[in-house]
Amino acid sequence: MLSQDQALDLFRKSGALLEGHFLLTSGRHSNRYVQCAQVLQYPEFTSLLCQEIADRFRNDGVDIVIGPAMGGILVAYEVSRHLGVKNMFAERENGVMTLRRGFCIEPGAKVLIVEDVITTGGSVREVAEMVIAQGGKVAGIGVLVDRSGGKVQFDAKLEAVINMEVPSWTEEDCPLCREGIPAMKPGSRKIK
Fold it and tell me: Which architecture does CATH list for 42-164?
């Protein structure tokens, strides 16, 4: 088993934990940011982190591992490799999470949804809705980092390799904005 401290050490070694003023994908602001792409660029770190997720769901009868593009693609692949099951990813099309590229979920398939980081859980919820609409069953949710400190709840088992409570604020309530510190957007999606 990989402890949270060991996992955090991998994030630190890779430069994946950042401090400053950040605009999150959710639209909220924060003084800390977890850039999982930095840790995922190291296959040995990725394997260790994803093995931990796979081990937590090994006895849950998972048929498919799926992650939302972009952050969940590598995580889904590596977790599925450790579980020895099919892997796929969901992507937004016209603002809606969907399966493309010939991916499909067989009715009744048990699907493990994985993601790199959750703050509000919005992308994971969208993928879960899509899985259910396709006739699949959500077997659980595995994430590398739960930034909510366990506050985000789902209708399925949630396992996070790292749980951390990172403060976030609306733009109106952001103390860093009030101090005039410019916000950076290190993620990959555009905020509306």
Answer: 3-Layer(aba) Sandwich (3.40)
Biggest distance spanned by C-alpha atoms of the chain: 52
Q: How far apart are CA 139 and CA 89, in angstroms?
A: 16
Question: What's the token pair of residue 46?
Answer: 């990725």
Pairwise CA distance, residues 1 & 143, whole Å: 15
End-to-end CA distance of the chain: 40
Over the stretch 35-93, which tens digit does the pLDDT of each residue have? 888 999 999 999 999 999 999 999 999 999 999 988 889 999 999 999 999 999 999 88
Angle at the Cα of 10 (from 4 to 13), degrees rounded to 5?
140
The model's pTM is 0.85
Return the percent helix, strand and coil in the chain, to nearest 5. 35, 30, 35
